[in-house]
Amino acid sequence: MAAVSVRDVSVAFEAVRVFDGLSLDIEQGEFVVLLGPSGCGKSTLLNAIAGLLDVASGQIFIGGRNVTWEEPKDRGIAMVFQSYALYPRMNVRENMSFGLKMAKTSRPEIEKRVHQAAGLLQITHLLDRRPDQLSGGQRQRVAIGRALVRDAAVFLFDEPLSNLDAKLRNELRVEIKRLHARLGKATMIYVTHDQIEAMTLADRIVVMKEQKIQQIGSPAEIYGRPSNLFVAEFIGSPQMNFIKGKLEANGAGLEFVSGKRRLPLSRYQFTDRPSSGQEIVLGVRPEHLETGEGGTWPGFQIDIVEPMGADTVIWCSDEKDTIQVRTSGNRKITPGERLALGIDPTQVSLFAAESGDRL
Amino acid sequence: MNGVEPRGPRPRRVTIARTGLYAFLVSAALFFLLPLWIMVVTSLKPMEEIRRVNIVALPATVTFEAWAKAWSSACTGLECNGISVGFWNSVRILVPSVILSIAVGAVNGYALSLWRVRGANLLFGILLLGAFIPYQVFLYPLVRIFSTAGVYNSLPCIVIVHVIFGLPTMTLLFRNYYAGIPIDLFKAARVDGGGFWTIFLRVMLPMSTPMLVVATILQVTGIWNDFIFGLTFAGRENLPMTVQLNNIVHSTQAELAYNVDMDATMLAALVPLVVYFVSGRWFIRGIAAGAVKG
Fold first, then answer.
1. ipTM beyond cut 0.95
2. Alpha carbons B33 and A235: distance in angstroms, whole number
3. What pTM does this model have?
4. Gyration radius (Cα) of chain B, Å
5. Does residue B119 sit at the A interface (CB-CB below 8 Å)?
6. Nearest chain A Cα to B293, which residue?
C-alpha cells in the first residue's frame, strides 16, 4: 500500500487548468523529491497533497485513506515552508506546540514531544527565543521541529533550504537526510529546484516541467539514463554536452555521424527502435569524455579552463560545437592547446532530435 | 584650483535655494500655528482685555476662569452645564464605535484576503463603492430604517452608524495588511489545525499591532470630529461634543465670550491631539520593530 497516492489529479485556478490528470504513488518511508524549474507545478502538487489547494478532479490517498475532501490538519501531514512561516509573536516553544495545542494534546505530552524534537535538532537552548531573535538556519530548524512534533506519517517540504546561504544549505541538507534515516518509516516529499538537493536526498526523483512529469526514477537513473532532452539538460552541473547528428547504418550496425565525426553505437542500449537516417542528438556528460591518447575525435582547441579544486572543467571547441570536459584537478592545462576527445558509447545518451525523447 | 586638498566631509554651503526652502517651511509652519496661538492666548485673557488689546498679544493677566466656565457652566441653549456633558457623550459614543468598527473591519479584511471567499473581489468592490457615495445620501433612508426598527435617536443607533461607515476604510486597511503577510504563515497555521477564528485570534491579530494603531488613529479622530451623524442619529441625550461646541458658540447672550468659545474648542480638539501624540510614537515603534516581517 502506498503511503501517498495521487490519482489522476487536476488542479485549476479560476479558469486556468494547472494540472491535468497527474498520478503519482509514493511508498512508505520513501524520500521523494519533486524537482523542476520554477512554475513547473511542483509546489502546486505539494499544496494539493497537503490539502491547501482544492483539486478540480481526481483523488488523493494518504495512508490508504481517501483524504481528497479532508482539511489539512486531518491528513496526517506536517509541512515545512521556504519562508519558515514561524508565528512571529510566539516563542520557539509556543511555535512548536501550537499544532499540538490545537489538537488538544495533554500538556506533559506536548512538553515531552517538544523537548524530543528540540533535542534532535539541537535547538533546546533556543526554546524561549522569539523568531526575530534567530538566524535563518535556526529558524528553519525550528520550522522542521514544528513539523516533527506533529508525529505525522508524511512530511512535506516546500523548498525549505532555498532562503539559506550555501554553507547552511549544505549543513541542513545533511541534517534532513539524517532525520529521514532516524525516523525510519516517515515518508518525505520534498520540493526543490536545486538538482544537488534532489540528487543527494532522494530515493526517487520526480522531474517535472510545465505541469507534466518528465521522469520518475532513482538519482542514478535520472542522471545516467535521462528520459528526454529536458531532463538531460536540467540535471548535472556542468551540463551534459549535446551534439547534433544523424544515425547511419553500416556493416557493423548503427553509427552516430556528425560531420567528420563518427561513433559506432553497437554497444549502446537502445530503448526505442531507431531508424537509419534519423536526426538525433548525442548527449555525453563532461566526465565521460577522455582527453588522453587515442581520442577518436580530434581537432578541438581549449578555450577556457575552470579549476574547481577536486576537478577541472575544460571548455573546448571546434568550428561547430563547444564541449565541456571534466578532468582531474591536478593536471596542467593551458588554453590554446589542441585536444582529441574519446567517447565511451555505453555512457552516452541518444535523443530523437524532433521529440527530444530518449532512443 | 583653490589649493585646498579635499579630505573628510564635504563642506556645506548655504545656497540661495536652501535659504528659500527654509524660509518657505518656516512661514508655512507659522501660518498653521497662528490660529492655535491666537486660541491659546485668547483663552487665557479676561474678556475686557480681549476687547482692548491686539489678538496676537500675550495676555497681561492670565486667568483660567474661562476654561472652568467652558468645561462646566457654559450654556448650550437652555442648559448651562458646559461642554463636559458633550465630552462624556462623545466618549460613550467613541469607545464602542472604535472597538466595534476595528473588530469588524479586521475580521472582514482577514476573511477577504486569506480565505478566498467566493466573490471576494466583487464584495470588496461594492464595499468600496459605498465609501465613495456622499454621506448625505444615506441620512434620510437611515433615519427611516432606524425609526422603523425603534432604535433611532439612541446611543446604539449612533454606534451602529459609525460602525457601518467605518467599514469600507477599515476593511480596506486590514485586507491590504493581511494580503501582505506571507501566505505560508497562513498555510502553516492551517496545517497546524487552526480554524477561521483560531488563526485570526492566535496568529493574525497578534501580528497586527501596527495596523491596529493606524486604525485606532483614523477611527478616533474621525468619530470624535463627526458632527452630522451625531446631530442626526444620537438624540438629544447623547449629542457629541462637536454638536455641543456649536451650540455654545451660537447660543450667546449679551456678549460674545470669545475666551470661553476658544476654550471649548480646544477642549474638543484635545482627544485627537492626544491620540496623535501618544499613538504616533507607537505607530513608528510598531513598524520599526519589524513586526511585519515573518
1. no
2. 70
3. 0.82
4. 25
5. no
6. A88
